[in-house]
Hints:
Elements: H1 2-6, H2 10-23, H3 26-36, H4 48-70, H5 79-84, E1 87-90, E2 93-96, H6 101-110, H7 114-118, E3 120-122, H8 124-152, H9 160-165, H10 192-211, E4 219-221, E5 228-229, E6 235-236, E7 240-242
Antiparallel strand pairs: 1-2, 2-3, 4-7, 5-6
Helix pairs in contact: 2-3, 3-4, 4-8, 4-10, 6-8
Amino acid sequence: MFKAIQGTDHAILRTLARTFVRAGNNPAALLCLDHFFSSPLKLLNLSFIEVRALLSLYLDYVGLLNKFWYDGSLAEGSECQRLFGFQVLRENHYLVPEHTLLHEKLTNQSGSNRKIMEEYRCSSGKLRRGITQIIRSRAHDRTETQNGACRDVHGFSPCLRLLVENKCNSPGDPNGEGSCTFHHIQPEQLTVDWYHARLCLILLQFQILDLAHYHGLDVKKYVLAHSTRNACGYSLNVKLLAWDIVFSAPSAFAEARIVRES
């Protein structure tokens, strides 16, 4: 794992993350996913199957961040202790090693001098606040980047130029290659299965935004009266309605209400 992290081998990190998730090794899985998603997702020209796999993996990532966010145990051998590497000295006394993300967060907040920075000691309250701030920042910043990647492909919408004219000459690209950010699909591929696959991606992105508590300026909170079951086959309380992110819809549709009776 550490060799893959050092070498920025995303393929191996992705495989290891899945293995650790199945094995219930949450600290190792989160470490792999955190490095995997350190770079923005590139969804352009990927199939719906590939996009869904990446979004599902990101959902696992946010789910693990939430788990550590709400995990209250700082005991020796706890998952938080294994992930962040702090040492338990005695009751309510902890030592945070140098050259760690948690150490940097705590020392920057306290303005400690160099001597104290080499051995940073703190109480459980300060340690927990530092961990919470790191996780919240990760969830927000990474989801903002991930959400931008979905916006860049115009909500997984089909390329109308290709459908109507049977060719795509994107503006700014004389050859019509590489610049189109819409999904290239042939008319015969516009089936019910295609529609369900696209709907699944949209609802999956809603779930990511909800789980990450991402309330950006371009995301509108949505009050839901019912519980719904999405196309992926699992229960989802849709609390967010996004425009110009997933749907790339005009503002006239911003107040649209989506309700499915149970």
